[in-house]
Amino acid sequence: xxxxxxxxxxxxxxxxxxxxxxxxxxxxxxxxxxxxxxxxxxxxxxxxxxxxxxxxxxxxxxxxxxxxxxxxxxxxxxxxxxxxxxxxxxxxxxxxxxxxxxxxxxxxxxxxxxxxxxxxxxxxxxxxxxxxxxxxxxxxxxxxxxxxxxxxxxxxxxxxxxxxxxxxx
Length: 169
Hints:
By secondary structure, this protein is of the alpha/beta class. It has five helices and seven strands. The longest helix has 12 residues, at 21-32.
């Protein structure tokens, strides 16, 4: 389903079963191979779903500096590339109530052309940053369980993802 306030149409999708946190990190490393400067990645999932674990894998795959941890209390962290590739800008929009207006204070539109921007909890807040974006929805088994299995849905929006596709993930 298309995100609100966005003219971009869904152009590619993939559904994956992820069996463990280690596999979620592997998925991030594999996704990083598809990413390039200017990409916007939105992560959706409840607390503990694996959004930061996926982002940690993205950081490893992109070869960035610094430990990728949840930016909940700082809102955003920038991880410069160690390999000459794009920086990773990791944003946690959980505590930001407003839409793009509140996000503008972070100057993400300035960082977007040369970075990969990953936004946790960005639904309804960052879609207007780019017509081309990758939306990752992580669903986990709910209830009182230690089950690490997740269902991950990757949906690409816009021409960028029509070209890249998601079949190789």
